[in-house]
Specification:
A: about 220 residues; mainly alpha; 8 helices; B: about 220 residues
């Protein structure tokens, strides 16, 4: 092989890479919050005794989980403007990612709720806790503790998945890679470097999530 | 020239769907073969092999599939290997699948109780006999449902090959959208086609899970 690797050619683009990392982190963080909120609402609907709530929740979850994110993204970014809803690339990305994460997180949350046996709730109520207190201390907190690892790996997966939104021109890390590639023609170097940068983000996210687990669940139960 | 989204376009999409399915099948076979190696390296009683497998799994699962696709697409030619989008997509999806299959199958192997090994030894079976007659049949049953479940992810992820120009369902939809300027019907149709395949696989996986759960 007689190719000269020139990683130095990327040096002038450090600030673009940093901008990309920041946007990837922002996009991931906001999507986690929105996706978790959607997921919580959908999970509550999907365990409701009313089938008028359960059915739409099931349809939403199955529709999202059985179609590719990139097609969902194209529907939001290219499809909605034909109905008169125009969105910028970054906001379309945020909306599509949140809708997508909502379906996955609702399934995880539902599994968590279903892991709490009804007798636990009855025990809570018979100890004199109000319905809201029972939900918070007996259902929500233990449920979240048991699904925390699944939720954390879903979040890491989400962070990696944000790379797909570069396909509609969002300017997060992978979008910046395409930009730098178009300026330097150093495709391999750019994509190898950017792909490895995601590995560092993954490791950072995993450490952060285990730190949170320790702070919220381990330390608290010892106290 | 803008034209309507017509039946011909739907036929074009169905033809492209064959490549989506073909790519998923290739990745299942390639990823399955590699995945067996990963699972074995991960469980053998030889530490460096375990580390190698763990490193590989973390590298694949810790980076975006899109990045892996681009690295192979642009990287292999540098080593004198001329690749088209088709080869790059097959290779990176196989590697991606192998990391997940490796983990699924390692989990299945390890979920067979240690006592089964001991019971086999007590009956005078050697290591190979215990593996093939006692442990593998049980591990296989446990692994089938999650393996089929992962195929859903694989089918959906073939859509990323569109971004390196491989003409499968998603790329075909982009091409038709460019000609008809009707993104909503085109992409909704694409979503429906993906849904048919993925939903059937999901349902099949759930059925398998229920079936094997009862008899376990």
């Amino acid at each position: 092989m007689n190719y000269n690797f020139k990683f130095k050619a990327l040096a002038p683009y450090t600030s673009e890479i940093i901008d990309g990392v920041i946007l990837t982190l922002q996009l991931s963080a906001v999507t986690m919050l929105l996706g978790l909120a959607i997921g919580l609402a959908v999970a509550i609907a999907s365990i409701s005794p009313k089938s008028a709530l359960r059915r739409p929740a099931r349809i939403y979850v199955e529709a999202i989980r059985n179609t590719p994110l990139i097609v969902q993204l194209f529907i939001v970014f290219f499809g909605l403007p034909t109905l008169g809803i125009k969105l910028g690339a970054n906001s379309a990305a945020l909306i599509a990612l949140s809708i997508n994460l909502g379906a996955y997180s609702s399934e995880i949350l539902r599994a968590g709720f279903e892991s709490i046996r009804p007798s636990q709730i009855e025990a809570g109520r018979s100890l004199g806790l109000t319905a809201a207190q029972t939900f918070r201390h007996v259902v929500l907190f233990p449920a979240i503790k048991s699904i925390y690892p699944a939720l954390a790996s879903q979040f890491v997966l989400l962070m990696l998945t944000t790379s797909i939104v570069s396909s509609i021109g969002a300017t997060e890390l992978f979008g910046q890679a395409a930009f730098i590639d178009s300026r330097t023609y150093r495709s391999f170097e750019v994509y190898a470097l950017i792909t490895l940068s995601y590995l560092f983000l993954t490791l950072a996210f995993r450490s952060l999530f285990s730190a949170i687990y320790w702070l919220v669940f381990v330390r608290r139960s010892r106290a | 020239m803008i034209r309507e989204f017509s039946l011909n376009d739907l036929v074009f999409m169905l033809e492209a769907l064959r490549w989506t399915v073909g790519l998923a099948i290739i990745a299942t076979i390639g990823g399955g073969a590699l995945g067996i190696i990963v699972a074995v390296l991960r469980v053998v009683a030889f530490k460096p092999a375990n580390w190698l497998a763990i490193g590989y799994i973390n590298l694949v699962q810790g980076t975006p599939l899109l990045g892996q696709l681009f690295v192979f697409f642009f990287g292999l030619p540098l080593f004198g290997i001329q690749v088209d989008a088709w080869v790059a997509a097959s290779l990176s999806l196989s590697i991606y699948a192998s990391a997940f299959f490796g983990e699924i199958w390692r989990g299945s192997l390890q979920s067979v109780s240690q006592r089964q090994w001991e019971a086999g030894a007590a009956l005078g079976l050697n290591y190979w006999q215990r593996l093939t007659h006692v442990v593998l049949p049980q591990a296989l049953r446990i692994s089938i449902a999650p393996t089929v479940g992962f195929l859903v992810q694989l089918v959906k992820n073939t859509s990323l090959a569109a971004l390196i120009g491989f003409i499968e369902l998603t790329r075909a939809s982009q091409i038709i959208t460019a000609a008809t300027f009707a993104p909503l019907p085109v992409y909704t149709t694409a979503a429906a086609l993906y849904f048919i395949i993925c939903f059937s696989l999901s349902q099949f996986s759930q059925r398998l899970e229920r079936r094997f759960h009862v008899t376990r």
